[in-house]
Amino acid sequence: MTHSRRIAIVGAGMAGVTCARTLGQAGHQVTVFEKSDGVSGRMATHESPFGTFDHGAQYFTVRDARFATALATVPGLCKPWSANAVRVLDELGRVAAASLPAKDPHWVPRPAMSALVSRWAQPLSEQISLQTRVTRIERDPMSVNRWQLRTEIADDGHQVFCGFDAVLLAMPAPLAHDLLASSKLADKLSRQMEAVKMAPCWTLMLAFPNAMQPGLSSLGPQWNAARSTHHRMAWLARESSKPGRKSIERWTVQASAAWSQEHLEDDHARVEAKLLKGFAEVTGIRAQPAYTQTQRWRYAKTEQALGVTHLWDAKSGIGACGDWCIGHRVEDAFISGLELALQVA
């Protein structure tokens, strides 16, 4: 019989929730700490008066049998998105070639990208501490073989959580590295994380409710999603084309890694203006949007992965997981969280 341990998990994205669920099912007591006001991580959803925007991950693929088995526990929640009309665009916005193979279907949860992680997190609701930023990991003075976490809680100051047998970091590699370094812990793990490279991404969200006028079904191009070679943008998607979404014309635009890095510290208004100009050049949509919003992701996509599914130091009880361990896909985050949980359990 598995000896029940108390385990802290920092981060409530796909990797963190998968890890927490698996460890909970194995009989361990888990507590999840999330700095945001909700779960899902980069499978995030932005709410607006005109509908939702998947302003992080746009879709996911299913290549691993374990991921397929897990998805079968929430039948009907996820639907294929007919994004096989994706095109690569040149600098002038002309369609160049088909981009994504039909053998690799695009799946999206309904009614928004965040719904999958949120559903899987429901059994853990009493064990997830939201708006709680972990600032330091240190030995528990009341039990030196265990850990305590110092945290900052929104609108509630500081709090210390004690008595953990293990601490698992389900967060971007640079943030995990910095937390370990500032805590003066797990030097070997933090050194391994230094090999990981993650790129930023600026995201622009646009809504055009006037496109719903009689006789006008949509604005701009006939395609619903595109990979772009425009120097500012890497991806464009018509949110209203995804299953289970409102029909109001909405677009999500994700800037290229190089452009996002160059403009990482620009203010939101300047980024919005530049991306809106690029959007008009690529799509031909020059109407003024009724709604705009920008989001900066400092650690959006893995450019250099770690090369193993997870990190685990059994002696110290410190581990780490995330898509950055093996790639950048939603599925990679699931596999990493699962593999770490199975190792710890």
How would you explain this protein's 3D organization?
This protein is an alpha/beta fold. Helix content is 23%, strand content 34%. It has eight helices and 20 strands. The strands form five sheets. It has a seven-stranded mixed β-sheet with strand order 7-6-15-16-17-14-18. A six-stranded mixed β-sheet has the order 9-2-1-13-20-19, covered by helices on one side. A three-stranded antiparallel β-sheet has the order 10-11-12. Helix 1 packs parallel to helix 8 (330-344) and helix 4 runs antiparallel to helix 5. The mean pLDDT is 92.
| Amino-to-carboxy terminus distance | 11 Å
Oligomer: single chain
Q: What class, by secondary structure content?
A: alpha/beta
- Rg (C-alpha, Å): 21 Å
Strand numbers in spatial order across the main sheet = 7-6-15-16-17-14-18
Q: Please count the helical segments.
A: 8
Main sheet characteristics = 7 strands, mixed
Q: Hey, roughly how much beta strand do the residues contain?
A: 25-35%
Mean pLDDT across residues: 92
Q: Looking at the structure, what is the overall shape?
A: globular
Order of helices and strands: EHEEEHEEEEHEEEEEHHEEEEHHEEEH
Question: Into which percent range does the helicity of residues fall?
Answer: 10-25%
Number of DSSP strand runs: 20
Runs in which pLDDT lies below 50 for 5 or more consecutive residues are none
